[in-house]
Amino acid sequence: MAEKDNEKMSREEAGRKGGEATSKSHDKDFYEKAGKKGGEATSDSHDKDFYEKIGKKGGKANSDGDNN
To answer: For the whole model, what pTM was predicted?
Structure first.
């Protein structure tokens, strides 16, 4: 869908292209650091109940045979 007849790129396409560009210009270490920062931010902004709830949801999904 890219820029045909003055059409703008969709958000989906822009996100995909941005993700591909990022993956080409960054290595595993970049993603590890970003994940660690995200985990720390989540930990700072959520309490024990949050982790208990998502743990239960994950356990239920796995026991139901879901792969997600």
So the answer is: 0.56
- CB count, 10 Å around CB of 63? 8
DSSP annotation of 7 reads P
Q: How far apart are CA 44 and CA 50, in angstroms?
A: 12
| First-to-final CA distance of the chain | 30
In angstroms, the CA 44 to CA 58 distance is 21
Distances in whole angstroms, Cα of residue 21 to Cα of each of 12, 15, 18, 44: 14, 10, 5, 30
Of all residues in the chain, the percent with pLDDT exceeding 70 is 85
